[in-house]
Amino acid sequence: MKYSRLTKEQFEELHQEFINFLATQSITADEWEDLKKNKPETAEQELDVFSDLVWFGVLSKVEYLEHISPQHIHLFKCKEKNMHLIALKLKHDQVDLTTKEGFEWLRDNLLSDDIEFFNANKDYSDDKHLDIFKLIQSGANITKGELFQYFEKLIGQ
User: Does this model's pTM top 0.90?
Assistant: First the structure.
């Protein structure tokens, strides 16, 4: 498996898609039940293949990621050949950017010397989707990019 297996809840949400996937593998409902009972390792492989297909589809559509921690904000724009990063770092630890109050402080103090801005481009490794997946696994969230676009305008990119 290239990415990670979907959770039980994710499989439940994608129940119809999984049925369609099994159909493309020429596996009927009765055959699936039989596989789960008598060949659990084969059933596990089917779950893994389906999970990877779902992840690949999701990762192919990712344009923006955000990772917000108490003292940092990392905003990513996933372009074709590389990813553009805009990062903010607080110079002190009295503010927690993961809270509403911390975000309000950031808005009110955006141009103060207490905030450092970083701007960089990074080429993908041989596997763009895996690079994006690793960021998600480390806590980044897929977004529509409003925060990235706001800071991109602010720093004049």
Answer: no
